[in-house]
Design goal:
Blueprint: E1 5-14, E2 24-32, E3 36-40, H1 47-54, E4 62-67, E5 70-71, H2 76-85, E6 86-89, H3 102-112, H4 117-130, H5 146-158, E7 164-168, H6 176-191, E8 195-199, H7 203-209, E9 212-217, E10 220-225, H8 227-230, H9 234-240, H10 246-256, H11 270-281
Parallel strand pairs: 3-8, 3-9, 6-7, 7-8
Antiparallel strand pairs: 1-2, 1-4, 4-5, 9-10
The protein binds adenosine-5'-triphosphate.
């Protein structure tokens, strides 16, 4: 049976002040509990704007956003409730890290949720340990490296134990060590049943990781489907300016060369492809 719908957008449109064209136009989609969703599309296609709508930072001028079937309540209390459940890790940590020290930064959200100082401290200590932040806990946030800032901006959200985590290009500008760390965190979130929505330009990662891909273009949703469908639709990829993942490219080559059958299943990773080739040889 299909899992419960966590977030549902119905006809969302959103135009920024000082702009005469909508950055989101008539966006309708559903996201279910525990899903791994990649949001893809060219620069300026509306991915970040959609994220900002999902936790109420932006209020759409048209349409309704539902969280667990209830329309979002834009009162101060309603927004606080929504934001404690739906957290955004921003693309640029400098837009997110506002407190003087790392410890204060990670405590801020939990204290705001009304936890006592003791409870907040316990959660913050645990999350700092989990994300290897303890060694630089007393540093000012502006004096951290890009990778450390990303660690803190993720901890900042996870300390609130959200149900849905939105990550806007989480590995942009990270070195391989921090990229791996972020991917591990994403994996652990999914293992714990958290719904994870990642905006990314990395087609190879999206293909092997996501349950579903949402493709955006000029503020609209062009498609929402499984990676095997999205990444084999040349027309869609061309329209959205997306590359073909390497594994699909190699598969198509092997099919054309008659090494794999034309109707073989579509692999999402190199491991899947190896399995297909082994099967064919048996
Ligand atoms: N604060 C703002 N004021 C006015 N227009 C904005 C603002 N933020 C974004 N836009 C515009 O809204 C559109 C969608 O931008 P958005 O940042 O949502 O796209 P994106 O898909 O996340 O892009 P990227 O991949 O570059 O991060 C773009 O045309 C952008 O110029």
């Amino acid at each position: 049976m299909d899992k419960e719908i966590v977030l549902e957008a119905k006809g969302l449109s959103c135009t920024y002040e000082m702009s005469d064209t909508p950055s989101l136009e008539n966006v309708s989609l559903t996201i279910r509990k525990g899903q791994k969703i990649a949001v893809m599309g060219a620069n300026g296609s509306g991915k970040s704007t959609f994220f900002l709508c999902c936790n109420g930072i932006l209020k759409p001028e048209k349409g309704v956003l539902f969280f667990h079937g209830q329309p979002v309540d834009y009162s101060k209390k309603g927004l606080q409730r929504l934001r404690s459940k739906v957290g955004i890790v921003f693309q640029n940590p400098d837009n997110q890290l506002l407190s003087a020290s790392v410890y204060q930064e990670i405590s801020f959200g939990v204290l705001n949720l009304g936890f006592s100082k003791e409870e907040a401290k316990e959660r913050v200590e645990q999350v700092m340990e989990e994300f290897s932040i303890t060694p630089f806990r007393n540093r000012p946030t502006h004096a951290l490296s890009g990778g450390e800032k990303k660690q803190v901006s993720i901890a900042d959200i996870l300390v609130m134990e959200p149900e849905v985590v939105l990550m806007d290009e989480p590995t942009a500008a990270l070195d391989p060590k921090h990229t791996k760390l972020v991917y591990q965190v994403i994996e652990e979130l999914s293992e714990n049943g958290i719904t994870v929505i990642v905006a990314t330009h990395d087609v190879d990662y999206a293909c092997q990781w996501a349950d579903e891909i949402i493709v955006m273009e000029k503020g609209r949703v062009l498609a929402q489907d499984v990676p095997q469908k999205i990444f084999t639709s040349r027309e869609l990829l061309k329209k959205a300016n997306l590359e073909i993942p390497m594994v699909i490219r190699v598969t198509q080559y092997l099919q054309e060369a008659d090494i794999l059958e034309k109707e073989s299943t579509v692999p999402r990773s190199i491991e899947d492809l190896e399995e297909l080739i082994k099967e064919r040889r048996r």
